[in-house]
Design a protein that fits this description.
The protein has one helix and two strands; from the N terminus they run ββα. By secondary structure, it is an alpha+beta fold. It has one domain. The protein is globular. A hairpin with a 4-residue loop joins strand 1 and strand 2. It has a two-stranded antiparallel ribbon.
Length: 49
């Protein structure tokens, strides 16, 4: 995980697409547990090749 810009921005990098998809599936639930939510326009999967 790399934090950048504001303290609430981060980049998560994965070698495998299925790992990234698994995290994207559970991350909103984990954030909600602490009263947080993901920004819908900033949160996305990108492929770096």
């Amino acid at each position: 995980m790399v934090r950048f810009a504001d303290a609430d921005d981060a980049v998560l990098a994965f070698e495998r697409k299925d790992d990234a998809e698994r995290v994207m599936a559970v991350l909103p639930k984990r954030f909600a547990k602490y009263g947080l939510k993901l920004h819908p326009e900033k949160t996305k999967l990108l492929c770096f090749k």
